[in-house]
């Protein structure tokens, strides 16, 4: 099972929980050094894990990482797209995409595409970590990079709405997979490092731990209860109707085609 952003926060907790339940975990991070503590913790507990190092902000790096994993593993039984990004300001990736969109939307899509064969072979469960913020999002069809008016919250909300929409379309297109999106709660993680300091203090003081936030994620990825569940959006532990645009099959299919073209860049 591949877990992105496994070097810390919820990704680390998901990786530890899956390994404790017998999974061979592929712990992803930008470098092997970032995930070494997670790998060491899994090894100490008697579990099995290996690193995967590539940069989700780069399509080229993500595609290369996916290709390497696909060559190494004939079957992958789970993909947890946990890694996420909240911008401190508008940044553009080497391929020319706004960074929030690149990490939160294009990278998961590139992994679905690059790992399609081993995911199908493993009848995989795909868990896409979304956010309740998607409910206030809007797809800016003519300006997905928000060059005409950027805001960090605006970019994040759009990216998470897009992820929920693409999750629904993935579930429709890939009958051999089970794909679900989940808002794990507002969890004290490094996601909020670019927010004003007072926000970070409040989140650290009052929000649940990464371990608690990880529970719904690993349960969707591993527990028998969810073996046949697909195309759903979960708000913490319960399924919930997502944003109305994520319930519109035509909009989801349209976005899939747009992102597919971008991912070929």
Enumerate the spans where pLDDT stays under 50 for 5 or more consecutive residues: none
Write down the domain tally.
1
What is the second-level CATH architecture?
Answer: 3-Layer(aba) Sandwich
Whole-angstrom Rg: 17 Å
* Number of discrete helical segments: 9
The named CATH superfamily: NAD(P)-binding Rossmann-like Domain
What's the average pLDDT? 93
Distance between the termini: 27 Å
The CATH class name reads Alpha Beta
Look up the CATH topology: Rossmann fold
Description:
With 265 residues, this protein is α/β, with parallel strands linked by helices. It has a single domain, classed as NAD(P)-binding Rossmann-like Domain (Rossmann fold). It contains nine helices and eight strands. The chain has helices spanning 9-20, 32-44, 59-72, 99-114, 116-121, 152-173, 197-206, 210-222, 249-263, and strands spanning 2-3, 24-29, 48-53, 78-81, 125-129, 178-183, 232-235, 238-239. Strands 3-2-1-4-5-6-7-8 form an eight-stranded mixed beta sheet, sandwiched between helices. Helix 4 (99-114) packs across helix 9 (249-263) and helix 6 packs across helix 9 (249-263). The protein is globular and about 50 Å long.
Structural topology:
Blueprint: E1 2-3, H1 9-20, E2 24-29, H2 32-44, E3 48-53, H3 59-72, E4 78-81, H4 99-114, H5 116-121, E5 125-129, H6 152-173, E6 178-183, H7 197-206, H8 210-222, E7 232-235, E8 238-239, H9 249-263
Parallel strand pairs: 1-2, 1-4, 2-3, 4-5, 5-6, 6-7
Antiparallel strand pairs: 7-8
Helix pairs in contact: 1-2, 1-8, 3-4, 4-6, 4-9, 6-9
Describe the structure in brief:
The protein is built from 9 helices and 8 strands.
